[in-house]
Amino acid sequence: MRPDDIDLGDLDVFESNQAWPLFDVLREQEPLHWNPEPTPNHGFWALTRHSDVALVTRDEETFSSEVGGANLEELDDEQIDVRKSMLETDGARHWALRRLLQHQFTPRGLVGYETFLRGLTRSTIDAALAKGEFDFVKEVSADFPIRVLARMLDVPDDHTDQLIEWGNRMVGNTDPDYADVLADSAESEEFRLLPFRSPAALEVFEYGFELAAQRKGKDGDDLVSKLVNQVPEDGLPLSERDFRNYFLLLVVAGNETTRHAISHSMKALIDHPDQLALLQAEPDRIPGAVEEMLRWASPVYHFRRTATKDVELYDRTVRAGDKVVVWFASGNRDDRVFEDPYRFDVTRTKVDHVTFGKGGPHFCLGNQLARMEIRIMFEELIPRLSGGIALSGDVKRVRSNFVNGIKKFPVTVS
Q1: What is the CATH number of the domain that holds 409?
Q2: Smallest Cα–Cα separation from 84: which of 275, 238, 254, 272?
Q3: What is the domain range of residue 126?
Q4: Per-residue pLDDT tens for 15-30?
Q5: Quick check: 364 and 86 in contact, CB under 8 A?
Q6: pLDDT tens figures, 300-329
Q7: Is residue 61 helix, strand or coil?
Q8: Are 328 and 302 in contact (CB under 8 A)?
Q9: How many domains does the chain have?
Q10: Among 372, 350, 400, which Cα is nearest to 261's?
């Protein structure tokens, strides 16, 4: 295959899990690849090497999240303004928004959750294993992170199914099984001012505003209370738009990525029984194995930036205004950094993955929570799998080149 034959906008490739050899070709032959797109989009530059993910995500002055947004969709000025969240904000304002909740996601801020998380993990696992045969996504990997988010938002556990559904409908906006309206359809134009072009965003906004009204002026320690009762350090209070988009970001980020990381990690252990056996025999290795799980899972394929000036890369010119897409998943299979990158190896050390980004201002705010959730999940789950676990049907993937997700994962346990 030649680079000219590769289209990273082809969702069939990602749904069938065939993107990996395409990334291999691009990393070796054309690490800066121009990928045409159908109108109304204009195409994008794809960067697939680990070093270039680091370069772009650390340099917001040259590669902006704010100018054009963080996703492939090309937005007009009205869409950019209305949809803007912390994810699509650069500079001092980004840092001010980030610091509103930063403490809650530090190791110190999360220390009180360890006991709760372990108890929650046990109840989730016990309920699933009691069935003998179940969908791992539905019963374990989706159930657990969303219940953690519910705790952090201080909402009832019986709201979790709704939170999961909202996340699916928004992030799965290119998957017919999830989307109310497919993002590339004519019908989506009605929702062009909503994140992901999804009507589910309206429901999330309404839910967030109801919580905000209940928490305003009170001394709660949950995430919503922190958002509505604090002023960012730059002195500019959150607008209604700021709050609703921040809240929606929490619903999506607190649910989707950790769920898919857990699913991919469990499937890797099933596909590599020697690695599962090693962790069962030596459970002290599990904390270290989490980094390999995160590398392997790569739950987000890419993020987009926009060049703010002409840049020379690989003897080609990226023009100001061009879309530049960094493929985190490809960086996590770069053999310049990872020896034998397609080997799942829980003993791998110094796993310099880019799953959360690579430093820089947009480094994933929830990275410590995700690490804790994955560690506790497998510390509790792996000892309970002494009788074995196996696939009992086809694994189905989310139809998306943004989220690297599993939506169906039937297993049996003994």
Answers
A1: 1.10.630.10
A2: 238
A3: 3-413
A4: 999 999 999 999 999 9
A5: no
A6: 999 999 999 999 999 999 999 999 999 999
A7: coil
A8: yes
A9: 1
A10: 372
